[in-house]
Design brief:
Two copies of one chain form a homodimer. Chain A is of the alpha/beta class and about 400 residues long. Chain A has ten helices and 15 strands. Chain A is about 30% helix and about 15% strand. The first copy, chain A, is globular, with a radius of gyration of 21 Å. The interface between A and B is large, with 56 and 56 residues.
Chain lengths: ~400, ~400
Amino acid sequence: MIRTHATPHTPANEVDHPSSPVAVFGPDKPLALDCGVSLSPFQIAYQTYGTLNAAKSNAVLVCHALTGDQHVANVHPVTGKNGWWETMIGPGRPIDTERFFVICSNVIGACMGTTGPASLDPATGEPYAIRFPVVTIRDMVRAQAMLVEHLGIDTLFCVAGGSMGGMQVLQWAASYPDKVFSALPIATAAKHSAQNIAFHEVGRQAVMADPEWKAGSYLANGSRPEKGLAVARMAAHITYLSEPALHRKFGRKLQDRDAPTFSFDADFEIESYLRYQGRSFVERFDANSYLYLTRAMDYFDLAADYGGVLARAFKGTRTRFCGVSFTSDWLFTTAEMRAVVHALNAAGALVSFVEIETDKGHDAFLLDVPELIDTTRGFIDAAARARGLAAPPAE
Amino acid sequence: MIRTHATPHTPANEVDHPSSPVAVFGPDKPLALDCGVSLSPFQIAYQTYGTLNAAKSNAVLVCHALTGDQHVANVHPVTGKNGWWETMIGPGRPIDTERFFVICSNVIGACMGTTGPASLDPATGEPYAIRFPVVTIRDMVRAQAMLVEHLGIDTLFCVAGGSMGGMQVLQWAASYPDKVFSALPIATAAKHSAQNIAFHEVGRQAVMADPEWKAGSYLANGSRPEKGLAVARMAAHITYLSEPALHRKFGRKLQDRDAPTFSFDADFEIESYLRYQGRSFVERFDANSYLYLTRAMDYFDLAADYGGVLARAFKGTRTRFCGVSFTSDWLFTTAEMRAVVHALNAAGALVSFVEIETDKGHDAFLLDVPELIDTTRGFIDAAARARGLAAPPAE
């Protein structure tokens, strides 16, 4: 049994009744998770943009990052902000919604309408909390594949995403090579590094150290570990930027004052900025989801599923790849992307690789970086020609 | 009134009755702080090694880092571990205690016997907590200068230290140029960067988010913000290492297991290691001291006191300098040390500069890095000759 329904905008409960279309997968369609659990029922909240063509050959799946969601190119129902990838997706954009049918679904384990730890467990009538099974990047991709099938699409023209989204792109290409015509992994890696695991562990410990976390059962207890989650977000946020960008944007500038206050106030602009990042994040994100999604990233090691040889993950692939990295990204470095590209070369794949010079750090994939826009446009247009998709109408 | 006394080893109260000699400065010797407060009375806990020569020309002042203390070259009274710089200081070491009289004092604001937020405020009979005035690197150096005078020493043969200790070295050379014959700043900078301020702010917010912090008054309330301080330490600890070192030491190795547990246990060795770092730190460190000392580092901007021109801080100096940086230190980079060296050059100072190739990150200054040992030995020996100090006895 599969039902699709859209609910009205209810920011208070985006978790169970999101303001996005939802695909519900009943007992006949369980999600087989890597941990051995069969999750059922479950639902996937998603957004689409543009129109699926008659041949169903123009679908682009966008995969979101750790703290992203399905609201790629529309106003966010909770924050009221623009979609997180409007530089990339929309009419006339590189992933042109007048040409392509763009899908983005909230990942399994998240909190914007797809089943996750904040969702009600039908067996108990209470949120799953940390009784929710631990999920992996492969589980996210399995769920997306079920959604894509549900939408009647056999092959995706492109799978694209940055960071955790890029991990999903690589997993898609490995798990479903015949369903991915082209793949655009950005600012990502085939495995999570020790340093990245370390930063995630700090974030998880910050959440778990908050007594309002209540061993994960905060929702049932009417509380929220907001302080712990804000600290986790602040630490993570530093890693998304680069030292040169922090220096350029903030340096040692004082916040609305001429001299230090000799106190623990936010004297420096960077302090004030980080506190704001922490505060605003907790308004839209579930703390347990943060634990689950960071864990999924930590567990990601694509080569491990192929005897430790990454090239085997892509053996025989006919997918066209374009890997993108940023010079100042110290979370997912060019060296990590180069390792992916080498494996693709070893597998005989069609692959191009672009390292973009920028001081904007890991967050560059979300920003209006002209070389990223141009690279994506070039790659998508060439792939569309190869796929026999009509060129965009002349202006 | 100045008294010097040593108390027996009492690990439970190293704060007020440390197992180190203590110099007590009474109402006639207040410490004039940058914030405008005159701190009185106050005490400084310190260790010495070796013997002061008759000319009092062989004294070396060692300045400790954020979480260091005066126990440079003896077993630590709380942890039972060896001194934190035994690679560098001791008989036959580069700073040879058979040749030099080595002094290290706990900084003002810390918690191992020098007056800080955990000390009893004589005005209230309770710990100062956050009523303690905010201190600066210059305040730390002012207090050290009072100790050095108290010990009857006019000129220091050398002032040496890494990280926050290196900031004190630079401040000593600027504030008391005639009292510093040679200076060895290691892995440090003349100002704290935006990224470093950001990481410190995360640590402070982690402490303050812990309800056991109780607006700073935890000691009077019989509690301690151990979880928050542990998170702060974990985040900071990552920044002391380098990505290559983390990769080499931990990579994605699992901790005492063959497969992931699909849980939030410490599956990875790096997680287990970080949790240990957090736990062990809180046993020996006061949370409020962590707030004060990180703040002092954030406020450090030596050039700001000299019209923004760093070279002016060293105008006319006759001190011999040796600046040391490490290739993989991303907290205090070679570029930061180079800026110090350029300023010293512009001031016409005698300065040498060594960038040491290592993957050990910021922590390299504490470790047995052969090039660091050799550099220090060479610099100290040459300075000793220039100072007319006898060569070490032949073996």
